[in-house]
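Re: [ENG-882] Designed sequences occasionally contain unexpected residues at chain ends

Forwarding the minimal case from QA. Structure tokens:
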């Protein structure tokens, strides 16, 4: 998404993550290289809203939003495209669209944001935001467009009509019909997810060709919190990834990724605590957020799986030391990053919860012990078992069976792209006993190990003459195989089989009843999953000398900035009517109640009750904790009303280029009574103060979010705030302020 605002200002938001180093599996012997973020450096200084697909030629292709690529360039690239053999070193290969190329419904000068590229049938389809259409002369009449191509690099041809046309909004203007993402389910139905803060995220079913919306849309995530959706299927669950907060607030950008899951692609999607993403007090489990290192604003993700089976998340971020493409202000500089996506206790998290990486890391596995793209005519690596086989136009075609001259065993992942061009059955054999086949005659995906057999139905009407990816993972004596359009987490069929014994032998392609085509056949050592998350901040012994239980008035350690006489202490609580004031920008009219913090690492906590109700619009009443240096440098953790939603926002303001800049991130879902924590850590290398935010709905289960930093030469104090608007009147009640070592 580009820099969008609604009705003056959309409040910023919050997220997750540790500055600790995540446990990392050893690099595979199949691909022992390393990499460092950002991966798009050779392509451009910025490459926002990225997605990656693997092409028919075995190369990986990345697509970004319309922006200049380099500082000082000032030329807008209309969906810049890059290619890589290893997901690490990328080469710019051109733009998807010429400067004068646009669909008939697009206004002159329209840009194309947030592309999503998929294989549908025998062609590639790109969905994108068309920023300006001929529906209105007022602008912001966004639509979802589409284009098709025979290859990932085009040539791309726009469809004449939008997939989703501009939608008038009930509050005026047009709903933000942006950030498309396509998904194909196991029943063969195809869906499109799209939307943003004004209107929320919706789902619509697509026609079989993927170019037309079918039926009425369904809202799957609340407005005023989410955008940039991406859905994938994992272990029978459907996971809706969505970005939250402002994408583009320069050095105060707190964009992050959260997730909910469901048993249907239509939802309802709920987070780890069972809170719906459509609720007014909106749910969302953090997947990716800034951790205090170089990267902030980590969001708008895509997804991919390497040849070892390890999942990865591709996204953009902002270097907090270089936030704009042409300083100061203007276009935010958002290069493309790639990090490991782990699944722990059924939930995705980046680098086991450690967040975006900055230093050298084990690279994705993009080659294997067997890795044949059939770029040459010979079959030197293969032995004919039966039938007739030949390599033509970069593909292996034939019937019968081949076996590799390489013996493999142990835990492995095998892949092949295949088309059944006459065969009644085709697939991969793994030694003498084990095979996985696509059975066209029976309409099933079949796994067999000796006398053991398991099957799963293929979608009705699936055209097996189109290219599909078959992936097989064997771990110990457990085999899982899936058939998918393009390896992007949208399986058409999944089958699981308990093996009689571990696999060992010479794998190879096989086809019966006629010919089949194979390409990109690989066998790589299976990845080692990370099963434990990095530790969350520890809460140790209480520091009673720094704490206040509000038992008998304010103690003498409190200091006011702009004292509010309406704040009173009685009955073991501080009661503070929410002020018609704020701290953001240059106004600085709100009161701040502060006390000195202990030296070194600590955790500070408060319990705040603020009855903001639900569903109704209340902007932007809030109350909670603050880490405060002065009126232009603070981090504010509050439960807050943002239009019809109630969120836990971790706002941040700092001085930049002569003026204050405000942004923020989102943590967990609030309740009427919400527990809030800030975990303070001093970076031993830089001396920076790092504050990580946490929230809880019950005081026991915590969601940890983003890290905001303060310079080493500052001395942040800790305090409380209650401001954002006095109408309708509401009073914040703080039970205590407690410090822990």
């Amino acid at each position: 998404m580009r820099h969008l605002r609604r009705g003056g200002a959309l409040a910023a938001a919050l997220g997750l993550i540790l500055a600790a180093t995540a446990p990392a599996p050893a690099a595979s012997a199949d691909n022992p290289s390393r990499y460092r973020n950002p991966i798009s450096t050779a392509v451009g200084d910025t490459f926002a809203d990225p997605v990656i697909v693997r092409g028919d030629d075995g190369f990986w292709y990345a697509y970004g939003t319309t922006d200049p690529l380099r500082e000082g360039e000032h030329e807008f690239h209309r969906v810049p495209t890059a290619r890589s053999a290893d997901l690490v070193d990328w080469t710019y290969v051109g733009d998807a669209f010429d400067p004068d190329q646009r669909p008939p419904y697009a206004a002159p000068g329209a840009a194309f944001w947030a592309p999503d590229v998929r294989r549908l049938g025998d062609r590639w389809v790109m969905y994108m935001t068309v920023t300006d259409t001929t529906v209105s002369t007022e602008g912001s009449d966004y639509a979802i467009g589409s284009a098709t191509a025979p290859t990932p690099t085009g040539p791309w041809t726009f469809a004449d009509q939008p997939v989703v046309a501009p939608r008038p909004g009930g509050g005026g203007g047009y709903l933000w019909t942006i950030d498309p993402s396509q998904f194909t389910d196991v029943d063969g139905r195809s869906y499109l997810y799209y939307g943003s803060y004004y209107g929320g995220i919706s789902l619509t079913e697509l026609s079989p060709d993927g170019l037309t919306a079918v039926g009425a849309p369904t809202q799957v995530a609340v407005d005023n919190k989410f955008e940039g959706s991406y859905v994938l299927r994992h272990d029978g669950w459907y996971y809706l990834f969505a970005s939250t907060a402002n994408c583009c607030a320069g050095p105060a950008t707190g964009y992050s990724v959260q997730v909910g899951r469901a048993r249907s692609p239509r939802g309802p999607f709920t987070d780890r605590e069972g809170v719906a993403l459509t609720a007014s007090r909106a749910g969302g489990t953090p997947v990716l957020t800034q951790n205090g290192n170089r990267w902030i604003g980590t969001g708008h993700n895509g997804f991919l799986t390497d040849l070892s089976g390890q999942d990865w998340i591709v996204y953009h971020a902002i270097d907090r030391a270089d936030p704009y493409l042409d300083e100061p202000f203007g276009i935010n500089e958002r290069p493309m990053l790639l990090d490991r996506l782990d699944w722990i206790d059924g939930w995705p998290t980046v680098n086991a919860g450690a967040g975006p990486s900055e230093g050298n890391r084990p690279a994705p596995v993009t080659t294997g012990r067997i890795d044949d793209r059939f770029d040459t005519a010979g079959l030197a690596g293969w032995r004919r078992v039966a039938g007739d086989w030949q390599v033509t136009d970069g593909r292996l075609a034939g019937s019968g069976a081949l076996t590799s001259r390489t013996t493999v065993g142990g835990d492995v992942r095998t892949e092949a792209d295949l088309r059944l061009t006459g065969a009644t059955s085709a697939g991969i054999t793994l030694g003498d006993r084990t095979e996985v086949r696509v059975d066209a005659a029976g309409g099933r995906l079949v796994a067999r190990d000796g006398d053991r057999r398991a099957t799963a139905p293929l979608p009705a009407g699936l055209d097996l003459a189109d290219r599909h990816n078959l992936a097989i993972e064997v771990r110990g004596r457990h085999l899982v195989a899936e058939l998918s359009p393009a390896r992007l987490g949208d399986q058409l069929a999944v089958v699981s089989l308990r093996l009689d014994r571990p696999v060992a032998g010479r794998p190879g392609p096989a086809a019966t009843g006629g010919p089949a085509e194979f390409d990109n056949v690989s066998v790589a050592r299976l990845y080692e999953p990370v099963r434990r998350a990095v530790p969350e901040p520890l809460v140790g012994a209480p520091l009673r000398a720094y704490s206040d239980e509000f038992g008998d008035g304010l103690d003498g350690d409190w200091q006011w900035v702009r004292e509010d006489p309406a704040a009173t202490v009685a009955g073991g609580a501080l009661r503070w009517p929410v002020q018609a004031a704020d701290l953001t920008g240059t106004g600085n009219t709100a009161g701040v109640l502060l006390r000195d913090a202990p030296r070194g690492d600590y955790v500070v906590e408060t319990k705040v009750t603020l009855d903001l109700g639900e569903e109704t619009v209340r902007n932007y009443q809030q109350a909670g904790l603050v880490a405060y240096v002065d009126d232009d440098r603070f981090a504010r953790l509050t439960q807050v009303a943002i239009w019809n939603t109630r969120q836990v926002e971790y706002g941040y303001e700092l001085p930049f280029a002569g003026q204050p800049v405000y942004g923020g991130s989102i943590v967990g879902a609030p309740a009427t009574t919400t527990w809030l924590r800030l975990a303070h850590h001093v970076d031993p290398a830089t001396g920076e103060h790092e504050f990580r935010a946490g929230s809880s709905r019950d005081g026991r289960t915590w969601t940890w979010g983003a890290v905001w930093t303060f310079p080493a030469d500052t001395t942040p104090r800790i305090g409380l705030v209650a401001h954002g608007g006095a109408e309708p009147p509401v009073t914040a009640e703080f039970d205590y302020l407690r410090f822990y070592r």
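QA comment: On inspection the terminal residues look reasonable. The first strand starts at residue 34 and ends at 35. Proposing we downgrade this to a documentation issue.
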